[in-house]
């Protein structure tokens, strides 16, 4: 009872001090840091990681990473960095074979890419969208390794999302898991 009274008192005082509009949810905007960089306002979700071929040494394999950009992100998604965590074998991604599409798989509308990098640094690739992905959308990125690893096991890939803006800090979404079988 005392807890309910406290919450009610706080709401009443907030309304008197800040006005009724302070209780109404307003559209979010990006967080701007002191140095002018932009950051996301809420966390994205890495909702799926998959491969079409999980046998070792397979040169036809593609890895898909599906990311949900929440409605209240506050900023559009400009780029994604995928980094293989240390393991027995280090992959090399073919930048020219990278694809992106709207939705939970590659069947959605194709998304033009401004740049893809990573062949110079094994185990890592960065995908830059030609037009940033607006909040409220889901995007699937497909990267192609030269071939699956020689050694079977669980391979982890860290996924980091970046907003528009110069040198903006990324938001680490977690690790996607690909199982390679002998």
From TrEMBL:
<dbReference type="Pfam" id="PF10989">
    <property type="entry name" value="DUF2808"/>
</dbReference>
<protein>
    <recommendedName>
        <fullName>DUF2808 domain-containing protein</fullName>
    </recommendedName>
</protein>
<dbReference type="InterPro" id="IPR021256">
    <property type="entry name" value="DUF2808"/>
</dbReference>
């Amino acid at each position: 009872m005392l807890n309910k009274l406290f919450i009610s008192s706080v709401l009443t005082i907030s309304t008197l001090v800040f006005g009724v509009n302070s209780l109404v949810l307003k559209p979010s905007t990006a967080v701007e840091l002191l140095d002018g960089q932009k950051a996301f306002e809420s966390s994205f979700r890495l909702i799926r990681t998959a491969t079409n071929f999980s046998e070792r040494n397979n040169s036809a394999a593609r890895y898909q990473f599906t990311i949900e950009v929440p409605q209240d992100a506050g900023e559009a998604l400009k780029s994604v960095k995928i980094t293989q965590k240390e393991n027995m074998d280090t992959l090399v991604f073919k930048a020219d074979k990278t694809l992106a599409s709207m939705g939970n798989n590659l069947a959605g509308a194709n998304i033009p890419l401004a740049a893809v990098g990573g062949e110079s640094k094994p185990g890592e690739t960065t995908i830059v969208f030609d037009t940033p992905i607006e909040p409220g959308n889901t995007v699937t990125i497909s990267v192609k390794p030269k071939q699956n690893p020689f050694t079977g096991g669980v391979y982890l890939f860290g996924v980091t999302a970046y907003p528009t803006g110069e040198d903006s800090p990324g938001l680490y979404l977690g690790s996607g898991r690909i199982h390679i079988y002998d």
